[in-house]
Amino acid sequence: MTRHTIKVAIAEDNKVFASIMHEHLSQQPDIELVGVAYDGEQILNIITEKGPDVVLLDIIMPHLDGIEALERIKHIKSKRPKIIVLTSMGQETLAQRIIELGVDYYLLKPINLDVMTKRIKQLLEAPERVATPEAIESWPVNTMVTNAIRKIGIPAHIKGYQYLRDAIIMIVGNIGLLGTVTKEVYPTVARKYSTTPSRVETAIRHSIEVAWKSRNKDMINGLYGYTININKGKPTNSEFMALVADKLRMARRA
To answer: pTM of the entire structure?
Structure first.
């Protein structure tokens, strides 16, 4: 199958990072960069005038932030581009709002440029399939989750291992749960194991700390294509689960 040129636009207020993305994407033979915006107003104009297939959208921008831009993009009469949000995913409420606005994908900062390019191409190769319980059972999600969390140094004997495993399986089946980890994921796991949501959260946090102390950076990078900054500190529970779920959802699409 012949792949057409993908038109991409960037919305990123950090001009240094925008320039880095610009340079990287310009080297891709099947990607055409149609515009770079440094605020929300500019990206709306680029979408209307250039009709990009994919927009890389930062959330924190001047004049019109990413959330406001997303709200306006929903009402653009021309063809709606695929949206990849660039975010730290630090807050569940923010994650939920992004999902409600119909974002097609998100990337956690700091961003691996090769992974970013791969995700751009994958978005246009095939539509996202809805993950039903039946669909999940048709591929080895349980085994894949188990292998992933073991490889990064989380031992099976600690409580957080099983809680984390079940939580990630839930998120793979419904990515929207990333926005309701506290309200839905922890309580659901807690009911299964006859414990409390707060204990589930604490145990998952402990399991992540165990993995982090192992400093198995190469393995984490290899699994997720994600540049880990050891000095930045541990990812949040939601960030960590998002990384694993992202890897497995991409495997399912492939």
So the answer is: 0.56
C-alpha dihedral over 18, 21, 26, 32, to 10 degrees? -80
Compute the radius of gyration of the chain from its Cα atoms.
19
225-247 confidence digits (pLDDT tens):
444 454 556 678 888 888 788 77
pLDDT value for 215: 57
Q: Give me the domain span that covers residue 54.
A: 6-125
Give me the DSSP letters along 204-235: HHHHHHHHHHTT-HHHHHHHH-----GGG-PP
Residue 1 lies inside a defined structural domain of this protein: no
Phi and psi at residue 75, to the nearest 5°: -105, 5
Backbone angles phi, psi at 84, to 5 degrees: -110, 115
Residues 115 and 40 in one domain: yes
Q: Which residue has the tokens 């250039």?
A: 50
